[in-house]
Amino acid sequence: MRRRSFIQSVATSFVSSSSLPRRGNGAPSVSTARGDVLLVFFSRAGENYFNGGRKDLTVGNTEVVAGMIRDALRCDVFQIKAVDPYPHSYDATVQRNVLEQNDKARPRIANLPASLGAYRTILIGSPIWNVSAPRIMLTFAERYDFTGKTINPFTTYAMSGLGSVVDDYSAACRGAKLGEALAIRGEEAEGSRSEIDKWLRRIGLVHDRRPVPPREPSSR
User: Fold this and answer.
1) CATH of domain 30-202
2) pTM for the full model?
């Protein structure tokens, strides 16, 4: 009952699983929802860098990856949304990010949950902007006590892979254990289900179903 009360208390902050995009073919071999896992992500649609040019995205790359993780785990999801939304324009977003990095800003997040409750594993995803996670990710990371929790970061990127996120979250997430991180090239997000599945297996959140051996015929 305590866990149900917690979920209900922050229900307005969590994304309905049906609202995230569904991508790719098939799903990993997992049969039960992961009530001890929270998926947290920030993503930006609109004009994005894409193979040296620009592309207008209806769904941001990180949200595409988050949708695949959600499909695999059927876990709770919190989508980070800025109180002051980022611009549609790629160049305007780059300019704002540079200012936020220079100012060491902590942009405000809408509808933050009061607590992370009984979650034991938290998957934190974002794009990489100028070699780092957007500053809004530190707003989230510094807010909570992560003692007894494992943080597994994931990123979408153009050139910088994980950037500095592992070091950043190691410093910002008080008490957390940092687990294996995953970096997905943004232009390849749509086709990344296999890579995501392998990562979820490596960190122990998805397991193969073992085939049931045939029963020996009765001697009677």
Assistant:
1) 3.40.50.360
2) 0.83
